[in-house]
Specification:
Strand content: under 5%
Order of helices and strands: HHHH
Number of strands: 0
Radius of gyration: 22 Å
Structural class: mainly alpha
Shape: flat
Number of helices: 4
Length: 131
Amino acid sequence: MKKVIAIFFIVICLFSIYTAYASNQQVINKQTQSQLVEIKDKELKEIKDYNNKYGTESFGMTAYVLDKVRIYSIPFCFVGVAIAAIYQYVLGVRKIDVRDRGLQLMIGIITVFVICQVLPLIFAIVVTWRG
């Protein structure tokens, strides 16, 4: 545990070395600015489509957020399963408790992944069944 805390503080110190100060200079160029505006317009259009599809703004925003959670949960699941596999199969070779921790971590991560993937479907069924 002491090693984890020490590594955490080292990482925090490394990130705090570089500081950025606000200035009046143009930070992004015109092309990047136009790309950001396009991304913003695309996301706003997608939110508007969800609002039209589900009828109200609250249902539309909920569906939009659930869709983003569904999409972004996939890479987190892969990373979590890799970490759990390292605990179970590499570090758990010599210690049974570490192997069990890896298995429990893998079960938890896969459970959260399945919930993140199924929740938008359940929401869509309940909202369309409601009315």
